[in-house]
Amino acid sequence: MKVLFPLIFLFFGFKPTTSEPACITCDQDRGYLCASNTLALNARLCMDMSEVSGQMYKTFLLDLKAQNGEGSAEYASNMPNWEIWEELYPDKTASEISQLFFGTTTFALAPMVGISYDQAVMFTKWRTKAFKKELDGMKEKDREAFPKKFEFRLPTPNEWSRMRFMNQDKGLLKQVSKITDAYKKEFKIDKNDFLNSSTTVHDVFSTMDEKLGLFGLHDNVAEMTSEKGVAMGGSWNNKSTEADFTKTSEYTAPQAWLGFRCIFEIIE
Fold first, then answer.
1. Sign of the C-alpha dihedral computed for residues 95, 96, 100 and 106 taken in this order
2. Phi and psi for 6 in degrees, rounded to 5?
3. 114 with 82: CB under 8 angstroms?
4. What's the pLDDT tens digit per position in 138-195?
């Protein structure tokens, strides 16, 4: 499997400051590293810094294609609805958008939209397997810094709303900015006139919450949760304020205003 992005493990998992005397050495009290490009929400959960981007989802699709074939049901069933993208980019047809998506980096940092709840869940399962493979390729000493068991999944509505309690120090915020700047440089976002001129969505790193170190919480696209049909956060057509972390939206099908981010859960 191909990696989602170049792996950058700068974001340390939350480490408890106290533990029960009888459980000082047990694994559940051990502080582990989060997955790359996530920030610790608490001792067991890490949250994606941003919404899942076009580049991340394209990697997923290309891996399905490589494993199962272009004509496979696995590949076809996870293809986005490109006609929905026309609502964001009216100057292009669905076919042209598809060609740009796979043939260029135009949408590499665009929020991934036009996919269903079931497709988002399938992506999280694939991402779990992909990250396990990355860790299996590490030296044993390096591997020990990461949890034995984990999974990527969609956040619950409560988990999404509890992001408001995160509070990053200035040093970590600088690391976040350094990494996101590197992605913007890699995909030449400053020269991406097509995405920069959009009156709807912007790149996934365009709006940062200076307290939380997370991006796109109150604009860009709303985000699916583990409850099918329930999305959290603001979007380009229904923005929320920085104080509102309980805003919900309902959906029954893929939307141009709907994307998702993942939770990385440390199980063991």
1. negative
2. -55, 130
3. yes
4. 999 999 999 999 999 999 999 999 999 888 888 889 999 999 999 999 999 999 998 9
Pick the range with the lowest mean pLDDT from 16-25, 59-68, 152-161, 201-210: 16-25
Q: What is the 3-state secondary structure (H, E, C) of 50-73?
A: CCCEHHHHHHHHHHHHHHHCCCCH
Q: Which of 268, 266, 263 is nearest to 47 (CA)?
A: 263
Cross-strand partners of 230:
250
For 53, half-sphere exposure in the C-beta direction (CA atoms, 13 angstrom radius) is 26
Q: Given the structure tokens 């043939």, which residue do they identify?
A: 103
CA atoms of 152 and 111, how far apart (whole Å)? 18
Kindly provide the residue ranges of all beta strands, DSSP E only, lying in the chain, ordered along the sequence.
Answer: 38-40, 45-48, 150-153, 222-224, 230-232, 248-250, 258-259, 263-266
Residue with tokens 């988990």: 159
pTM: 0.88
Residue that is written with structure tokens 């409560």 in the block: 158
Question: Helices then strands (H, E): number in the chain?
Answer: 9, 8
